[in-house]
Amino acid sequence: MADANEKKGKKPGRKVRVSFRSNRSRPSRTKDWTRQHRAGEDIEVSASESVVAKGHLSRKRTIIETDEPQEGLIAGTVVTLRGQFAAVDDGKRIWPCTVRRILRTLTIGERFPVTVGDRVRFRVVADAPGVQAEGVIVTVEPRQNELRRFAGRRVQVIAANVDQVLIVSSADLPPPKPHLIDRYIVSALAGGMTPVIGLNKIDLDTDGRARTIAQRYAMLGYCVLCCSALTNEGVDELRQLFRGRSTVLAGQSGVGKSSLLNAIQPGLKLRVGTVSDETLKGRHTTTTAELIRLAGDAYVVDTPGVRSFDVSMIPRGELEQYFTEFVPLVPECKFPDCTHIPETGCAIKRAVKEERIHPERYESYVRMFEDRTEGGLA
Ligand SMILES: Nc1nc2c(ncn2[C@@H]2O[C@H](COP(=O)(O)OP(=O)(O)OP(=O)(O)O)[C@@H](O)[C@H]2O)c(=O)[nH]1
Ligand SMILES: [Mg+2]
Ligand SMILES: [Zn+2]
After folding, report:
1. Where are the alpha helices (DSSP H) in the chain?
2. Burial class (CB in 10 A: 0-12, 13-18, 19+), 3
3. Are residue 170 and residue 277 in the same domain, yes or no?
4. Do 81 and 158 meet the contact criterion of CB atoms below 8 Å apart?
5. At what angle do helices 235-242 and 257-264 cross, to 10 degrees?
6. From the CA of 327, which ligand is nearest?
7. Around ion ligand 3, which residues have CB less than 5 A away?
8. Cα–Cα dist 244/89, whole Å
9. Secondary structure class of 341 (helix, strand, coil)
10. How confident is the model over 100-116, as pLDDT tens digits?
């Protein structure tokens, strides 16, 4: 909650309208990763999620965005989140930082006010016994883009300020899930990033099924790389793709995200896991998203695998624009507000029937359109 002092900052700052979360909202839930792990749930990036009931986001007021003296603040980038702390790299070292209370209170509909890739300014705090934080984050620069998903009834920003999303899938162990690829494509495009598809473990593609899926996406105009962290096929191309850019790697657990990074930069030594024989699923070896700088001015964010990827924070009316093959056909639908599901005279459904749109792509659209979890937006 903003107090009077927050508003009466001595230095003039930019006035912004923000929503405040009521102090009477439910207390923060403490995370129990072990329990989640056992239950086979996704590992979440933030350990400090708080649950906000609906209707708590309504109060708006104007505050001064920067009422702190700017002198002495250190600029850095959030490289990972550990419990209540954000690890901030100032180019010289990593600083464990907490987040200033006013930033926590600002409700931006998110689980945590900062995320991996955020550019922040922090103030150094004196070491105190029992206090591990060395800095307090005072400002967060506006994000250029964000990879978001809906998790735990709030939006989780997996990473910010990245140019592209490498959607990693594997030819087998686990088998590719085109629907999950489609969800990542939608989230990447909605967040302002370029989706790129990496089909790993191509050494296991004995029946050519994975290459057929790769071709489907290549035909849609996406950059698709077939690769193998085992044989190094496609690894040079990946290294080239990463050069001079920032990339977040996303995909199911066990598809080989960390293995690919290790192949690109031998010596990196990221922990890689095994894939369970019974479930063919990975074991969530990477538990926290982490920003890593590679040779060639490449920044990558390795992320924990997910089981599902909820994009229900994206208004359903926007979904069609993220299905690239739908876009030129939409004006041909009989009704201008066609949702392409129950309507007659729908150009999208006609194209599916005539096999100009892949049925699995259409099914992905329908599932995302209809899949509104509790608390999701209409
Ligand atoms: N055959 C084959 N196995 C691979 C390849 N890449 C990775 N693996 C194996 O797949 C398993 C999982 O790899 P990880 O790199 O831990 O997968 P991840 O996507 O980082 O998984 P999480 O961190 O749990 O999200 C390991 O046993 C790797 O050895 C590949 O190209 N071919
Ligand atoms: Mg990993
Ligand atoms: Zn239609």
Report:
1. 4-7, 33-38, 101-105, 178-190, 209-219, 235-242, 257-264, 347-353, 359-370
2. exposed
3. yes
4. no
5. 90
6. 3
7. 333, 338, 340, 346, 348
8. 19
9. coil
10. 876 665 545 555 789 99
Q: Which residues pair with 123 in a beta bridge?
A: 136
CB atoms within 10 A of CB 308: 14
* pLDDT range class, residue 15, cuts 50, 70, 90: very low
**Closest by alpha carbon to 270, among 255, 259, 282, 254?**
259
**Domain for residue 152, yes or no?**
no
Q: Mean per-residue pLDDT for 173-188?
A: 95
Protein residue whose Cα sits closest to atom 27 of ligand 1: 274
Q: Let me know if residue 155 belongs to a domain.
A: no
In this structure, the answer to whether residues 192 and 168 fall within a common structural domain is: yes
Domain with 36, as residue range(s), is 4-147
The identity of residue 120, as a single letter, is V
234 lines ligand 1 (CB under 6 A): no
Does this model's pTM top 0.85? no
Domain count within the chain: 3
C-alpha Rg value of the chain to the nearest Å: 22
How far is 135 from 265, CA to CA, in rounded Å? 31
- Does the C-beta of 288 come closer than 6 Å to ligand 1? no
Enumerate residues 6+ apart whose C-beta is below 8 A from 215: 224
The reply to whether 78 falls in a domain is yes
Our answer on whether the CB atom of 2 is closer than 6 Å to any ligand 1 atom is no
In a domain, 52, yes or no: yes
